[in-house]
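quick q for whoever's on today - can somebody do inverse folding on this one?? i tried earlier but teh output was garbage lol. tokens:
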């Protein structure tokens, strides 16, 4: 499992699938919410239309039993007076919830305007009604609390008093359920107030079925539950295929690198795809790294071979002189032995410093005045002149002294008479120049002389103690100090070496 999800292909597929799944979930939830809200609002509008139609009939003094909205084909309708008594309700209404009252049987607190009896004849009836009302009120006190009119919600301002025959502008919406003719369903209710001429303030509650909303939401949810997983699976499959094709060159690069590591053949190169994407750039960079590594390894091999050769010569010469001295003490060449020993010591010191530089050793961060350093190194050397202005750089005084000493030794080795040293400032750089009046360096060899163990005049260099490491060591020190060392032609015709270092 860890190996499966440890690959880029698996992680990319999983990540893309999770992103798409989250996006689909959020989008689906938003769509369902919007669909439910729109359909609920549509049902509320339908219920409001029914409620206002009934309210208009009540405002026109239509008797309760002649209201058109109370038919069995209409939705649930209730008419409640300002005391919370149900005075009219739809036919076949058996149960209701979510409105002002849950009563379904009308109870009138005053005679119907449609009654044809005279006032004297209706008086006893009114008394009977009052008695019934009192009994019903007692029952109400025992069973339920008096409902609150929806026209005066706690979080809204009360609607201004209505004139007789006027319908309120505010509509209160609620959701609930009702049972009509043994059929129970969910409804969206709308409540509207109307001020009648002879029956006081009435509240009309009408409901519109939410069956369409429920059906549409269920259908949409079913489609989403089936379609969204299929879409996520499709995205996962496409991501897996596309990622696999995109990473196919990486597999080739990895296999070739493994083969190069096993064979240690640095001449081999990884395949470069013909595209211009990141993988192609990775392949090119890998080949450039292999080329640099091949050059470095080859350079190291040559360095070891040349160092072995250079060390072998003074050691062999010193051994020969010691063997001759052991057999014939009178033939001991003491000066030659000392010279070979000093040469061997210098060569070992150069090799040690080169190894330290190759290992990436950073120079110490100290301030060094190149002018003072030039005067110190020139002291005791014949034919060396110094013209220097103060210029401080940051670095190792010992390594910079070795650099300048190697340049002066090289100049004295090839000069006819004099070697001149100058130090000056150029912008944010310090420039140290060493020039001689010798034959100079051919333009084609001005870079080659900085290679290790390269001698343009091998015989004279070996006679003078040179091993071909001085200039290579000087350039390595310059690079480690953030500077450059170049060779050119001096005004006198000889060689000119310029060291440029950033000022401290």
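ok took a stab at it. sequence:
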């Amino acid at each position: 499992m860890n190996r499966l999800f440890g690959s880029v292909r698996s992680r990319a597929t999983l990540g893309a699938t999770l992103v798409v799944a989250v996006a689909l979930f959020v989008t689906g939830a938003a769509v369902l919410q919007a669909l439910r809200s729109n359909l609920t609002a549509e049902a509320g509008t339908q219920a409001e239309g029914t409620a206002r139609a009934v309210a208009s009939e009540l405002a026109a003094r239509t008797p309760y039993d002649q209201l058109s909205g109370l038919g069995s084909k209409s939705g649930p309708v209730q008419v409640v007076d300002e005391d919370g008594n149900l005075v009219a309700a739809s036919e076949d209404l058996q149960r209701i919830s979510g409105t002002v009252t849950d009563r379904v049987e009308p109870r009138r607190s005053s005679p119907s305007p449609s009654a044809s009896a005279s006032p004297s004849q209706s008086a006893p009836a009114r008394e009977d009604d009052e008695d019934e009302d009192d009994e019903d009120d007692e029952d109400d006190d025992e069973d339920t609390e008096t409902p609150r009119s929806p026209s005066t919600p706690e979080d809204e301002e009360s609607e201004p008093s209505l004139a007789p025959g006027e319908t309120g502008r505010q509509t209160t919406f609620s959701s609930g359920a009702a049972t009509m003719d043994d059929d129970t369903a969910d409804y969206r209710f709308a409540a509207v107030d109307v001020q009648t001429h002879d029956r006081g303030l009435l509240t009309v509650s009408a409901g519109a079925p939410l069956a369409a909303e429920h059906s549409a939401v269920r259908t949409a949810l079913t489609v989403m539950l089936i379609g969204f997983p299929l879409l996520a699976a499709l995205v996962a499959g496409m991501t897996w295929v596309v990622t696999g094709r995109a990473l196919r060159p990486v597999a080739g690069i990895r296999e070739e690198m493994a083969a190069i590591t096993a064979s240690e053949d640095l001449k081999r190169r990884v395949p470069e795809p013909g595209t211009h994407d990141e993988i192609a750039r990775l392949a090119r960079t890998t080949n450039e790294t292999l080329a640099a590594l091949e050059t470095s390894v080859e350079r190291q091999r040559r360095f070891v071979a040349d160092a072995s050769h250079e060390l072998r010569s003074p050691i062999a010469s010193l051994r020969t002189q010691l063997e001759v001295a052991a057999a014939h003490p009178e033939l001991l060449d003491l000066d030659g032995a000392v010279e070979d020993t000093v040469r061997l010591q210098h060569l070992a010191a150069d090799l040690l410093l080169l190894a330290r530089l190759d290992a990436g050793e950073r120079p110490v961060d100290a301030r060094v005045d190149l002018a003072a350093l030039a005067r110190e190194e020139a002291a005791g050397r014949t034919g060396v002149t110094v013209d220097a202005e103060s210029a401080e750089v940051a670095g190792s005084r010992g390594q910079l002294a070795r650099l300048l000493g190697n340049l002066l030794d090289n100049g004295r080795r090839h000069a006819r008479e004099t070697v001149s040293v100058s130090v000056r400032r150029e912008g944010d750089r310090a420039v140290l120049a060493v020039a001689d009046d010798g034959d100079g360096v051919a333009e084609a060899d001005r870079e080659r002389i900085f290679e290790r163990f390269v001698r343009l005049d091998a015989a004279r260099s070996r006679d003078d103690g040179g091993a071909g490491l001085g200039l290579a060591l000087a350039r390595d020190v310059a690079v480690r100090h953030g500077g450059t060392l170049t060779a050119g032609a001096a005004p006198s015709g000889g060689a000119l070496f310029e060291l440029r270092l950033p000022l401290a």
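fwiw Residues 110-157, 458-463 have pLDDT under 50 and may be disordered. also The radius of gyration is 53 Å. so keep that in mind when u check it
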